[in-house]
Structure formats: C-alpha cells, structure tokens
Automatic annotation (TrEMBL):
Record InterPro entries: FAD-dep_OxRdtase_2_FAD-bd, FAD/NAD-bd_sf, G3P_DH_GlpB_su
Gene3D superfamilies registered for this protein in UniProt: FAD/NAD(P)-binding domain (3.50.50.60)
GO cellular component: glycerol-3-phosphate dehydrogenase (FAD) complex
Protein name: Glycerol-3-phosphate dehydrogenase subunit B
One MF term in the entry's GO annotations: glycerol-3-phosphate dehydrogenase (quinone) activity
Length: 397
C-alpha cells in the first residue's frame, strides 16, 4: 500500500510527489506521458496573484496567500537557479525580442540589465529555426529606446552537418550543444570574437543558450566582463525540458517511484473512497492501492478531460467537470471559456458536486490543469496554479 499515488507526471503531479516524498511518504507517480512542461518555456508564470486570490472560485482564492507564497518559495528552495518572488513580476524576452511579464524565472533570463544599457549585442546563430534576428532587433529597439542594437551573426563548426543538409538548427539542438564540453570551449571562442565590440559596455543577448541547471555554463558566464541574457524559445523548448528533468531527478532522489508510459484505465471505489487504480502498461494491467490519490492529468490538453460535441468527461474517476455555458469565443485570440473547464473542489482540493457542494471522493485531491475556474492563457498563471495546488496536495498525502 502506497501513502500516495499521483496520477499524471506534469509540473503539478511532480511537485506534489516531491513534497510528499520529502515528508517521508511512500509515493508513486503513474503517468501516461511527460506532460506539457516540455512545450513550455520553463518560466513559471504566477499571474497577478494578489488579484486572482480575490477572484471567486479561482484556485488561488481556494488555496489562499499562505499556500501560493509557500509553494513559490518551496520551488525556489528546490531550484535555486530560479529567481523572482510570488508578488512581483519579472520580465523575460520572448523569442521575438519583446519583454513579457513572468513569475519565477531561470536566472539567465533576467532582463534587468537591459533597462540600463546603451548597447545591446544580439547574437544570431546562422541557420537557427524560429529565430528572426531583424524582428527581434526591431522589438528590442522599441522596448529599450535608450540603447543601440547591434546584430552579430555567427556560424559554428559543430553545426556544419546542419548547414550542409539545409536542416534548421532547433532551440533544443542549440541548448544541448552549448552544454557539452566542446560547446563550452566554442562558447569561449564566441565571447572572444566580441572583443572588437567593446562588450564590457554592452549587454549580450544570446538566443539558444540555456544555462539553467548547468553549473559549467553558469561558471563560464560569471567570469565575463558583460551580462549575458538568454531568451525564451518557441515550443518545444529546452528550458521546459530541463525543468522537467530536474523535477524527475529530485523526485527519484527522494525515493519516489515514477512509471511513465502507464495510463490509469480503471479505478475501484467503495462509497466515497478510492481503493485501487488499474494501470495499463505495455498491454498488461497492474493494480495499485494507496491511502490518498492525487489527480493531475492535465485537463483537456493533458488528456484528463475528454470533450465531445455532446459532453465533457473526466477520464479516470468519471467526475462531472464544470463546463462553462458557451464553450468558445469566435474571436480567435480572445478569452476562451472552455479554458476554465475542470473539476470543482472544496478548499482541501477534494472533488465536489457543483450543485450540492457535497464532497464526492474523500481521499482524492485534484490539482493543476484539472482544477476548474482558471485560464492559464488570459490570467498567465499556468505554472503558479500547478505549483500551489501541487505543493498543497503534497502536504496532504
Ligand atoms: C504549449 C504550452 C506552453 C506553456 N507555457 C507556459 C509557460 O511559459 N509558463 C507557465 O507558467 N505555464 C505554461 N504553460 C502552462 C503550464 O505548462 C501548465 O499549466 C502546467 O504545466 C500544467 O501542469 P499539469 O501537471 O496540470 O498538467 P500536464 O503538464 O498536462 O500533465 C498531465 C500529465 O498527466 C498525464 N495523464 C493524462 N491522463 C492520464 C491517465 N489516464 N493516466 C496517467 N497519466 C495521465 C499526461 O500524460 C501528462 O503527463 C504552457 C502550456 C502549454 C500547453
């Protein structure tokens, strides 16, 4: 018998697992896939937390300030590479070179130095996919009008095979290469090539470089006479991938067990308690029992809620999701009501019946994108809700 079984190994499920395992609990995470972190920039968006805490039914309002703050602080204790605080927004650069608000950010993405500099050197690796140097330059000039922006195109021998085949170099290719021993040596040469630009008076922006969780890369950068600022990338993004890897390593180091590629297909309930889940892996069924179950299956995008023209269905426990009236907005980039679809809970994150507010399952907790009444795109709190609810569930296991 496990103390806790977490169904879904994305940001919310992994954080819940880490917190519970750290508290000495025997924890199993069962996950069909790797979650949406590998698509995300690796930045944790917390949104306007103080406003959202006062927004009726929002997960932040259910959980309260202590939980939101503790979860953000806990995450930073786990990963000191992340900078910022839950109350004040930081700014990071989008792949198009515009600053955008964010919550907790890898230190390499910190843009503070850009507001003070009079010279920005924008590194432009030849052949890089989804990076548009002229667009980025123009957006940087708009955002930091006090600075001149100098484009510095360069080519790297290690990518000769890409150039020969006419294959674009992805952000993942770059991120991986700069972390290797030969990538770090090449990087030192790239810094040297900037000597003629008087870089000590400049700030250097380097798309494709991701130093989070890489001690050697951080060391190389800390010895430079100028600041280097990294950029977020279009999905799939190596920043999100490295965060996923970091979370998995922490969870396993604490003794947690992770089964990836295993979907929960059936559950056994007795009254308001779940006793058992049945997991299908490689065509074979296995049963697992626990005291507490945490549902972290990622909502519509993660596969936790299936939507047809007729109905929406929660896929593991068959819980009735909250479905907003009028699912969509014909304005493509407008707020989409279906984003708020999810399972309603009490303030212990136990699923409730929307009408009667009665608790439906006493030993089940709902977290992350499975929760109702929030919208990660409009409220920009995708990572924040996953951290807060994941941390809280980890305390409950
Ligand atoms: C493209 C994209 C970019 C984003 N960018 C950002 C960003 O920059 N900053 C930010 O803060 N947020 C961002 N977000 C939002 C943020 O990533 C999510 O809100 C958050 O990670 C959701 O985490 P989760 O753990 O709830 O769900 P998920 O990450 O979706 O994880 C759910 C997991 O459950 C598994 N699962 C589903 N069904 C089952 C089953 N039956 N049995 C077992 N496992 C199952 C899935 O395979 C998956 O691994 C982005 C999201 C997307 C899609």
């Amino acid at each position: 018998m496990w103390d806790g079984i977490i169904i879904g190994g994305g940001l919310a499920g992994l954080l819940a697992g880490i917190r519970a395992a750290e508290r000495g609990k025997k924890v199993l995470i069962v996950s069909e896939g790797v979650g949406s972190l590998t698509y995300s920039s690796g930045v944790i968006d917390l949104g306007d937390a103080e406003r959202l805490m006062n927004q009726k039914s929002h997960p932040y309002a259910l959980l309260g300030e202590r939980v939101v703050r503790s979860a953000a602080e806990y995450f930073q204790t786990l990963f000191p590479d992340y900078w910022g605080n839950w109350r004040e927004p930081q700014f990071v650069l989008t792949p198009l070179g515009s600053p955008r608000k964010a919550g907790l950010i890898p230190r390499g993405l910190n843009t503070q130095a850009l507001s003070e500099t009079h010279k920005i050197i924008l590194m432009a690796l030849e052949g890089m996919k989804d990076f548009f140097p002229e667009v980025a330059k123009s957006n940087l000039l708009k955002a930091y009008p006090q600075a001149e922006v100098v484009l510095h195109p360069f080519r790297v021998e290690a990518f000769e095979a890409w150039y020969t085949l006419g294959k674009p170099i992805t952000g993942m290719d770059c991120g991986k290469y700069w972390r290797t021993a030969s990538g770090i040596e090449t990087l030192k040469g790239v810094w040297k090539s900037l000597d003629s630009f008087e870089p000590d008076k400049a700030v250097v922006i380097f798309p494709g470089l991701t130093s989070v969780f890489s001690q050697p890369l951080r060391e190389v950068q800390s010895n430079l006479p100028f600041s280097v600022i990294e950029m977020t990338a279009f999905p799939p993004s190596d920043g999100g991938y490295y965060l996923y890897r970091g979370l998995v390593q922490k969870f396993k180091a604490l003794g947690g067990e992770l089964l990836v590629g295993s979907g929960v297909k059936k559950v056994e309930l007795k009254g308001k308690q779940c006793h058992k889940i049945i997991v299908n892996s490689k065509g074979k069924d296995s049963e697992f029992s626990a005291r507490v179950f945490v549902l972290a299956t990622g909502g519509i995008f993660g596969g936790g809620i299936e939507v047809t023209l007729e109905a929406a269905k929660e896929m593991v426990f068959g819980l009735p999701p909250f479905v907003p009236s009028g699912w969509t907005n014909s304005e493509f980039l407008g707020e989409q009501p279906y984003a708020r679809m999810g399972v309603e809970t009490d303030n212990q994150l136990r699923p409730i019946d929307s009408a009667s507010k009665e608790v439906l399952l006493e030993n089940v907790r709902i977290i992350g994108r499975m929760l109702a009444h929030w919208d990660p795109w409009v409220e920009r709190c995708g990572g924040g809700v996953s951290l807060a609810s994941g941390w809280f569930a980890g305390e409950q296991v």
